[in-house]
Amino acid sequence: MASFVDRVVLHATGGNGGNGCASIRREKFKPLAGPDGGAGGMGGSVILRVDGQVTTLLEFHHLPHRSAPSGTQGMGDYRQGANGEDMILSVPDGTVVKDTDGNVLADLVGMGAEYVVAEGGHGGLGNNALASKARKAPGFALLGEPGSEASVVLELKTIADVALVGYPSAGKSSLIAAISAARPKIADYPFTTLVPNLGVVQAGSSRYTVADVPGLIEGASEGKGLGLEFLRHIERCAVLVHVLDCATLDPGRDPLSDLEVIEQELAAYAPDLQSDGTRVPLNERPRVVVLNKIDVPEARDLAELVRPEFEARGVKVFEVSAASHEGLKQLTYVLAEYVERARKLAPKPSMARTIIRPKAADGSEFTVQRKESGGQTYFEIRGTKPERWVRQTDFANEEAIGYLADRLAVLGVEKQLFKAGAVAGDEVRIGPEHNAVIFDWEPTLVTGAELLGGPRGTDARFAESQSNRPTRGDKRREYTERMDAKAEARAELWTEREQGIWTDPEIDADAPVDSPSKD
């Protein structure tokens, strides 16, 4: 069973908002004392929060689907529904949130850092909040808005100051165990390390963290071995330590060739870090060469032989033994100097500035576009307010639909439809293509209190439309019949003219020039 997971796909769903309540207060001698329906509660949101006690994404591997609780419905007597509690999901420090296309949405670094994955839906207003001078006792309430849904990729990038890289069985796990309190698995076979290991090193007054990742081999950047899966864990490290095995029994390997292969793999992985322009590629960061296992006589001789060649390349070289602890103290102090220098050069974290985005001067809160699909023309309306209002409308209630029409008219939707070339009877869609509300548009010609005098839950405009207003099919049928009647009338007139029935010279003079001549 897996004990460490550093990449998962999370499917999050925010809680639904509670429906508003349509209620009328009853008092003695006042059977209809006014609306008192309360609003529905807000739905809970799914939030990621950095927790220092969490070191893996294993929990999301077993439970990838998370849903926040919904808000409850409003009630009479002005009682508002309860809000759904936010679902807080704890993630390790250094978790990167991406969408399914690979775009970075958030980089959670630091205790308490948060990111809202899926927002909860707004609660619907009760009829008490919808009352006005024109509509004193609304017979409807707004529905709760559904919570948003999102699928995101969580990637853990370990936060450490120093990274130990090298071939499998080069002694990285033994080295981190010797200089820190970490106790990774140590064995004499390749790929013993299957998960990254972190250790804290104290060198004088300096304290820093060291990361040990699975061994790299040639072709790791192309997916060979385990290196590619864990290269992300050294992206945040300021110093790279190349641990080279001087006691290897492989005849085709030596410290010089091992270093060249590892640096080639780091260079192949480096372009992925240049997308934001702020991180230094792995092959350009400060690096230190550690010649390990010098407690073996042959290894010590080989280390003394290759050391001048490494120093000629301008890198610091240390001959150490993780088994006898020879040379480790000097190594830890030099690494502390590198870390302190990197911390001074790192940009200081600044407080997040509050960004105020004023409303656009032209009031453009929605868009109207003319589109075609399957040879049919329709008009698409997109915008936060229109889409939210549609989701919160109870289309089984005529008064609620009339209220929606009035809100859209006040927002300016009808004016924009006229500008886009829409005419009565055209198809209009509000919302995304896969989940749009479709209706035949009829301009709102009259609105006001004179249309709100009917029973609660009804709208006089709908009664008028059901009795007098033709549907789209009626309009098409009427147009076809009118065109057919005109064609028949023209044919009858030409037949009479050919028979010589026409005697009025003025009518003959007005006949079209391109009309057929009489033989």
From TrEMBL:
Chief location: cytoplasm
EC number from the UniProt entry: 3.6.5.-
Entry GO terms, CC: cytoplasm
UniProt keywords, alphabetically: Cytoplasm, GTP-binding, Hydrolase, Magnesium, Metal-binding, Nucleotide-binding
Residues reported to bind GTP: 166-173, 191-195, 212-215, 292-295, 321-323
Residues where Mg(2+) binds: S173, T193
InterPro entries in the record: G_OBG (IPR031167), GTP-bd (IPR006073), GTP-bd_Obg/CgtA (IPR014100), GTP-bd_prot_GTP1/OBG_C_sf (IPR036346), GTP1-OBG_CS (IPR006074), GTP1_OBG_dom (IPR006169), GTP1_OBG_dom_sf (IPR036726), OBG_GTPase (IPR045086)
One GO molecular-function entry: GTP binding
Residue ranges of every copy of the OBG-type G domain listed in the record: 160-340
Biased composition (Basic and acidic residues): 471-499
Enzyme class: hydrolase
Superkingdom assignment: Bacteria
Chain residue ranges for the region called Disordered: 453-519
Homology family: Belongs to the TRAFAC class OBG-HflX-like GTPase superfamily. OBG GTPase family.
Protein name: GTPase Obg
Organism: Sanguibacter inulinus
Gene name tied to this protein: obgE
